[in-house]
Amino acid sequence: MNILPHVFGALALASWISSVQVKKKSNILILQLLANVFYAIQYFFMGYISTGLMNLVSVFRCYTFGVNAKKNRENPFWLLCLILSIIFVLAMLYCKTFLGIIPILATILYTVSTWQNNTKFLRYIFVVCSILFIFYNYVVGAYVALVGNLFEIISGVTSIIRFEKGKNISN
């Protein structure tokens, strides 16, 4: 077993779990940008090009949406449409199996959830996508990422509970 992809999976996991524990959207997106870089490297090393490409689209998404969040600007609708179009084009070119739909669906859900400003919705989507990726990572043999998905679910649920305790989480 090649250990290198799993090292990048562990780095991605640390970044991703940290992302749902911060309050500001711009900080969430910075940590997720880093996580997506590591996940992309992991999946490329494992030969899952479509999934790696979805992570690269997510890097672009996190960067552009993060810049807007840091400047307290709304993400324009045209930008959402552009990123979704890129996802669909890459999906048509590289998705070869039914299993390949999972990272595409997750990327679409993450894109829509990070496009808007409701961090509560964002955290719920993180949990849903982590559940989707448990199945995907099991099938493709990304076992560190699979364990990470379990931690992501626990971390996501914990952050939902923590931020919902009488606090406004739509920052």
Topology of helices and strands:
Elements (H helix, E strand, L loop, with lengths): L3 H16 L5 H22 L2 H22 L6 H18 L6 H15 L3 H22 L2 H22 L7
Helix pairs in contact: 1-2, 1-7, 2-3, 3-4, 3-5, 4-5, 5-6, 6-7
Description:
The protein is mainly α and 171 residues long. It has one domain (4-164). Helices cover 80% and strands 0% of the residues. α5 runs antiparallel to α6.
* Helical content band: over 70%
Structural class: mainly alpha
**Structural Rg:** 15 Å
User: How far is the first residue's CA from the last residue's CA?
Assistant: 43 Å
Compute the number of helices. Answer: 7
What labels would you give this structure?
171 residues; mainly alpha; globular
Quick structural gist:
The protein is mainly alpha-helical.
